[in-house]
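[Automated response] Your request has been received and processed.

Submitted sequence:
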Amino acid sequence: MADQSPTPIRCKAAVCRANGAPLVIEEIVVDPPKAYEIRIKIICTSLCHTDLTFWRVKEDFLIPPLFPRILGHEAYGVVESVGEHVEEFVVGDTVVPTFLGQCDTCSSCASAGNNMCSSVPFAVGPGMRRDGTTRFRDAQGEPLHDFLAVSSFSQYTVVDVNQVVKVHPDVPPKLACLLSCGAGTGVGAAWRLAKVEPGSSVVIFGLGAVGLAVAQGAKMCGATKIVGVDLNPEKQELGKMFGVTDFVNPSELGESSVIEVITKMTDGGADYCFECIGVAAVMIDAFRSAKQGKGKTVILGIEKDGKPICLPSIEFLFGKCVMGSLFGGIKPKTDIPILAEKCMNKELELEKLITHEVALHDINTAFDLLVQGKSLRCIIWMDKLVV
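Generated structure:
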């Protein structure tokens, strides 16, 4: 019998070869999946702020710059081939890759309050998480670094079985794509992590894609007052589409502080505050805007300059708490199919986050739109490639 083992695939990918440089569409080689790995044909991907952060990473950032690299981590695709010991997926399955894994066997995955798999731990650094090597090479045979062990700005990619979630084929590709990071993070932060209660008050600092997804999650959970805080006045009307009931622009408060205004609006402080920007001063404002006795503050943004958060310790005595968030506290394989179903029955309307769609050869347009603040989520389609 002929050997049916997967072989290397030549395809197109958007490669970043220097810090902040435009991505280049190149022919690359994607190696076959090894044990516990899946090779995926990417149908569509989208651009997230995290991609932007690592595209033009600062020298003093927590993770040093690393190029050449294939970015991208929000995506939808079809299983093309599987490696040894892969049992839950077959060729043709419709899936989303995720930067966070779930094995369902380690103590962390078995815990209801922990979404950080300990058998194949999350890592920001390059390389597949079991052996640290890459599956990408350029036309000259030189290795290309991956990103979050996903690298979806390629027509084909290889992902660990822990980081792949099966979705129903009826789920629209671009909607499933959003759930693999940004939308899942925002909705999950309200739903799974903070556990927003019906009738509660919620304040969201920053109405980007993640913040607006938080608003959708809070609305889904039954919050009655959802306050959006943003310096962009256009976000007031946009926020209403996602469930925001009130809007605060910090530049229009005169002598009053954001904390004072929110405390008054929420009758003594918000039940839940979400920081979705990544600025230490805003994180402090969010914490101080929370209600005494029960207020929860969830930090979703990464402090862009690496500054520490300095909080008054006495406020902790009053019952407030601060919660960190990775992927909004959701367990990918458990929760993404649930969120997909909620989208299909219109309990969530996350498709409103999609503001632009381009082909892979126009991927730099997606970067320009996000840098200029003109885009929430731009879907990048692989099957419209023209070079």
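Summary generated for your ticket: The longest helix spans residues 209-221. The two ends are 38 Å apart (CA to CA).
If you did not submit this request, please reply to this message.
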